[in-house]
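Risk register update: the risk of archive-format incompatibility is retired. Evidence:
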Amino acid sequence: MEILRLKDVGVEAAARSAAATLRQGGVVLYPTDTLYGLGADAISDAAVAKVYKIKKRDEQKPIHCIVADQAAAEKYAVFEDLPLVLARFLWPGALTLILKKKEGIETGVARGLRTIGIRIPDNSFCTAFAKEFGGPITTTSANITGMPCERSVEKILAQLGDTAKDIDLIIDAGNPPAGGAERLPSTVVDVSGTEAVVLREGAIKDDDIWRALRFEP
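Archived output:
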């Protein structure tokens, strides 16, 4: 396990190292604009399986992904009126959209599902990481499923215990990763149907979702 301190190596060098780790099928513990996440190649069955193992997560519970920008998101998901409106007003940011997946996307986080969860974080490292990798990256909180999300690398590793050995690279951005004392996970909104359904309220409040949708053409 290698540890890179973001303030020492810089965003671009850290992103290159993280992307190289993913290309080799590895897993990266990395900072986002919300919490620390576990990153792997989101369309690789083997890499996604490693993330499930580290978190001790039920494989029936989906894991979402990040991409660098809207154009990248549209390679993997179908964007109709509702998701386009929310993306326009709330991306980049702490909003995960559950979208209908594109035909032919059948592996990794999309395996066995008709949908895919995608987010564009408001975070310079995440943007550089996703651009450098060139594909979707898993973004699931770095914790054992059902346990609290810790905000420092040291506490995360302590909680993960033996499963932490499957992490290949750590990008340490301090505690908490994005500044501020209280960080919430992303808000998750299902827009794969005809109506928006908030599945989890997080950093973006319900009122912000409905306010954005009022601007729908």
